[in-house]
Design goal:
19% helix; 6 helices; 3 domains; alpha+beta
Length: 356
């Protein structure tokens, strides 16, 4: 999931020796519009991805290219194959389905891909395609929901994935709404990207997520995204939570230190050496002590390695966090073999402790 719920520079588009590292193409298989990105940084083995525009679902490709510009690409997921030859800035050839159906394919290099992508400096083929994939995404508005007779949120659904997210409609100053919705939209696009890039699943995407909690007040806009996935290349299915909290007074996303600071002096910059030391030596041990006082039953030392040891400070070093009616929810994080212990429902810091 995020920080704990990409990368190659683009050089040229096409030359006779295929010097480009990532080539972005737009075209069609017969009458079916597609887009494709091919990473040519390793001339021996090409890596790529393509999607049908009406579905958006990524399909991974591997293959090779000859010095004369003949491309051979195939998908282990679908069994489809592309056999194409470069003619100027166009790839033309044959698409062969897993059932042996042959169709003509024509793909054109996207001329503005350099200007659109060189500012990124870091990208792989799938992530490059996201910029184009989401350009024509149209969210379908759903219900309006009023919270505490003060705040209104508008729900939206992306029709292909059928996954939903909300935006702030009323209840805060216009500038706060604009900044908060920009954060919410960025998170939602990240989830859509994860959904459409989760390949190798027999029924499309193996990624699913939902808004499992949301809480709006005069001080905070806070929500949690819960996701589970089973994607090609992963060792096993997995799941996780990702919390986001926004200051409702200025629209700024808040860190855990902004909300609950247990150190002394100036707060360290996130991801700095001092920040990691604070989380390890100050924050986590104090959370263990706090929860032992608040939840003595849940914080008992386990008698088996298969039980959840919430007394271990390391599981609290980097918790996901979000507000609920009861207080600030902190999510413990465990090793894969005991992930059932992640994010217990009881691990809440009450408001009385937060704002003493």
């Amino acid at each position: 999931m995020k920080p704990h719920f990409l990368f190659l520079s683009l050089i040229v588009l096409f030359t006779s020796a295929i010097h480009a590292q990532i080539v972005v193409l737009d075209g069609a298989v017969s009458k079916y519009p597609i887009m494709m990105a091919i990473d040519t940084s390793d001339h021996a083995v090409l890596q790529g991805v393509y999607f049908y525009k009406n579905k958006k679902q990524d399909i991974e490709l591997t293959g090779s290219v000859s010095k004369s510009g003949s491309f051979e690409l195939s998908s282990d997921d679908t069994g489809d194959k592309f056999s194409m030859t470069k003619k100027g800035s166009v790839l033309q050839g044959t698409f062969t389905s897993a059932k042996g159906v042959k169709l003509q394919v024509t793909l054109n290099v996207i001329k503005d891909s350099l200007s659109r992508l060189e500012v990124t400096k870091r990208s792989d083929a799938a992530e490059i395609l996201d910029a184009y994939k989401f350009a024509d995404i149209k969210l379908v508005p759903g219900r309006l929901e009023t919270i505490d007779n003060r705040f209104t949120i508008q729900w939206y659904t992306e029709p292909l994935s059928k996954i939903s997210m909300f935006k702030i409609a009323k209840g805060y100053p216009d500038e706060v709404i604009r900044k908060a919705n920009a954060i919410i939209e960025k998170n939602f696009n990240g989830q859509l990207s994860a959904y459409f890039s989760c390949t190798g699943y027999e029924k499309g995407s193996g990624y699913d997520f939902s808004i499992s909690s949301y809480f709006l007040t005069d001080r905070f806009i806070s929500y949690c995204i819960s996701a589970n996935w089973d994607c090609k290349g992963a060792a096993h299915p997995d799941f996780g939570e990702s919390g986001t909290t926004i200051d409702a007074r200025n629209g700024r996303e808040l860190s855990l230190e902004d909300i609950f600071w247990l150190g002394k002096g100036a707060k360290p910059q996130q991801d700095s050496k001092e920040w990691f030391e604070y989380r390890d030596k100050v924050f986590a041990p104090k959370i263990v002590a706090l929860f032992k006082g608040l939840y003595p039953k849940e914080m008992k030392k386990p008698t088996s390695d298969e039980d959840c040891d919430y007394t271990d400070p390391e599981v609290w070093n980097f918790p996901e966090f979000y507000f609920t009616k009861k207080g600030l929810q902190l999510g413990a994080f465990f090793a894969r073999y005991i992930r059932k212990c992640d994010n217990p429902s009881w691990s809440i810091i009450p408001y009385s402790e937060l704002f003493k």
